[in-house]
Structure formats: C-alpha cells, structure tokens
Amino acid sequence: MKRLNAPVLAVGLTATVAAVALAVTVWPDDDTYGGSGPAGRGSAVTAPSSDPSASKNYPLSPAPRAVPSVREHGPARGPGWRPEKGSRVLVDKGCKGLTDEGRLLSRELRIGYAYGGTARAGDIELALKPDKKAPRESYTLSARDSRVRITGPDEAGVFYGTRTLKQSVKADGKVPEGVVHDKPATAQRRFNLDIARKPFDAGWIEDRLHEMGDLKLNQLGLHFSDDQGFRIASTSHPEVVSDDHLTLAQVHKIVSLASSLHITVVPEIDSPGHLGAVIRAHPDLQLKTADGTPVKGAVDVSNPKAAQIVDSLQREYMKLFPGPYWNVGGDEYQALTVKSPEASFPQLAALARKKYGAKGTVQDLAVAWLNDRAAVISKAGRTPQAWNDGFFRGGVAKAAKDIQVEYWTGKEFGARPPEEYLSAGRQVVNLNDEYLYYVLGQPNDFTYPTGKRIYEHWTPRVVRGTSAVPAKYAHLIVGGGFAVWGDFPNAQTPAQVAAGIRMPLAATAQKLWSPDKPKLTWQQFSALAAKVG
User: Fold this and answer.
1) At the N or C end, where does the chain have fewer CB atoms within 10 A?
2) Over the stretch 229-264, which tens digit does the pLDDT of each residue have?
C-alpha cells in the first residue's frame, strides 16, 4: 500500500566516533545484550568492539526515551547510534512488505533508503522475523556496532520499533546502545471520535492518525451517525446524509492512511437510539408514545423498515471499512428510560409478548435488535461491539456471546458493573467516562480530562469509576480508548480540541501500552511528550 506523506523530522548529522565505528557485515543474534525478554535472556554484557578498552569508557546505557515508554531494555556500553552522512534505512531482502515503513523512516530522519544488500556502519536494518510465540505487535530493537536492527513477527511490530527509534532521536539525538524487547499490554488501543455532532474535516482526522501512529495506537473509532448528523456519503441511502459530510473518496484516503500506520478504523452506526438523522429522512420510523408523542432519536423497533435501512447501511460501509471490528451502538434507547415502557409503548409490548410469551418486555426487543444488527457483522466475519448500557440483566432475550462490551459508564439506565460481564467471560474494551471522555461543552457534570489524572490514576482495569476490577479479569479487558464527543459542537474549535486532547491521548497511549506504574513523573513525561511529539 502506498504510504501517504508524513511529517518530516530534521535531524542534525553527527560524525561517528571513530574508535567504535565498525564495518561489520555479520549481525549477532539479538540476544547478545541480554535482558529478560519474552522467554528470559540473562544479564546484560559488554558490547562487542574492535577496541575493548573503548567500550569500558561508556557507562551502561539508559533505555531509549519514547512515548509510550519501552517495556524492556537490555543496557550495554557503547556510543549508541546516530544518523550520519551515508546512513540508510535498509529493508532486508525478502521483506518487501516493510517498504512503506522503511521509506517513511528515511523521510523522517532525512537519510537514505535501500532494499536488500549488506548493512554497513550507520545503517538501520528492518526485517521480519517469524515467531509464532511472539505477539504480532512486538518488536526487538538492537543498537550496536554503529547500527540499528529492528525486527518483529509482523509489519506492525517493526513499525512500532521505528516509532521508538524516531522519538529517541528527537529526544536525545541518538538511540542508546543495547537491546529493546517491546510489546503492547492490550490489543485494542483506540482514539474514538464523534464526527456526527461535530464534523471534523478529513485533514484534521489525518493529522490525528499521524499522531496516533507515533503513539502506537491502533484503532480509530468513528461515530458518524447520530441525531445531529450523518457524516459519510452513502450510495444505498443518500437521503440520510447531512450536507456537511465526508465524501467516499475522502474516507477511502483516511482508511488507506490509517492502514499504512497500522491503524484500523472501527465504524459505528448507533441504533436503535441516536438515529435522528435517519429519522429526518424517514419520519415514519420514529418511535411514538401511546399518545402520539415522538421520541427523540429512537426508531420503532417493531417497524421492519427500520432494521432494513440500518442493515443496508452496515452492509454498504463494510466494503468501505475492511477492519475486523464494528460498533453497533445499543446505548440510550429512550423507550427504556421511562417508568413503564410497556405502558408507554403498547405496540412494542404487544410485539414482545408475541415473540417471547407472557414474560416478554420491551427490553427483550432492544436485546433482539442488538443481536440482529450484530449478526450482520458476525456473518461478514467481523467482531461486533456495543456500548455497555445496551446489555441488560434478566429478561428473556440474551445478548449474543460474541459481542464485545465497550464499557463507558455506570451512570446510565441499565448500566451494570463491569464484573458482571467479566465474570461471564465476556471481553471488554475500556472507555471509562470518569477519565477518558472529552465531552465538548462539559455537560452533565463532565469536565475535560487531564493527561496527569489518566497517567497517575487510570489503568485498563479501572473500567468504571475510580476502582480497578480484580486482577483475575485482566485478560478479558482486551483494550481501551480515549473518546471525543461533540455534545456542544461549538464549545471548542477543531484546533482547540487537538490541543486539549494531546496530553490525555499520550497518557492513555502510555497506560494501554504499559499499565504498570510509570517510571517517569508526570512532569518528566509531559516534557518528553512535548519534545518527541
């Protein structure tokens, strides 16, 4: 896939220290410098050198400085690697899939690029190293003999290694001697963006993708349909699309750029609530109470046409968004927020009893709607996701087991504690609104989150409120993310949003990559983020 242009990093060229510059053509195994590693790798040893006394003059190296921080570094003695005249990014022969990663890094460092051939002093080597036991996004970065070698089992891991190298050079002008073994703690690391209520243009979204790539985030959640607008062009239902929207060509470009940065776009058509934009074009779909009062944003789930339109839109956009995940919404269905849904919506109550017997309720219809929309996604080989308040305890109908829970709140109607999902073995993605919700205008007691609070107090196990779930559930928390919601779209300009989320997003990326207590203070971390961002 062709790599789109990315910001260029200007780096001063520094001559290599002659005493340790070696024209070595055989690269030793990556375990030479030790470090515990995924399988255990012994203690650090002195770097090889043609002049043994020279290496003794160097202290043991620190870890490369990057955001997020590397999780494991085997220190060594030596000068490290600096870009110099003649330096190249060299993609190993047989690894053409790394061409985009290699060319991007060469542009950013303003050094040469080559494919195949023998590495020489000053080069950065990129190579795939198949390993069925290693996580797909893991990488090893070795700096020694005036060279750097980055390997991983997948292109994504090698890309993340190049992000560490780039940031280390921005922070300190070099990559320290030694070996990094690095991998993310969570599989899904997301930035969630509401473009339905506040339409952000394609250029703004592309800028965030570049920012996300450097932070090793791998998902862009795109909420593009709500009461206020439907923001992506449609060929199946053009009548629902708002005037201010992204064209299909713009979305293709966004998806292509995201893919080149190893980011998956996770689309969301929220239903059966939050469908005001669709209802404006199809007013016959709107849910009404027994006295004829329309319910904002909610479709009547007893009307088959509502399901037909949503499913046709999902099928259309699955061709546009090829990633493995899809959010079907499910939250804040207003039919369930009244005192007695069955009394307020007799047509729904009648259908529920017809489908589920005397014990059938409107809640069961909402669960059935969620399952039916998720089934469209599952049949296409994708993994469906839904907001946690779209799942309910009790009732006749049960949510399909393959739907992942995007847990955002414990404050909404029907919200259950995260332990209820986790104890049942259901996978959870953490978007805790206590820490990770940037809601424009700060309504309903929301305040703009700070990077400091996320960095010092949040971890992926803090799913609801401020308390962590038991450690035994950690393996079921498959990811997390930071979200921007446009409740009051004019409260901030796009530039203000970009500035406001910069440090919270960096802090979230740090804790998703490595949830352990950070080694840097907040002041040190924020200073580093400013330097490498």
Assistant:
1) N
2) 999 999 999 999 999 999 999 999 999 999 999 999
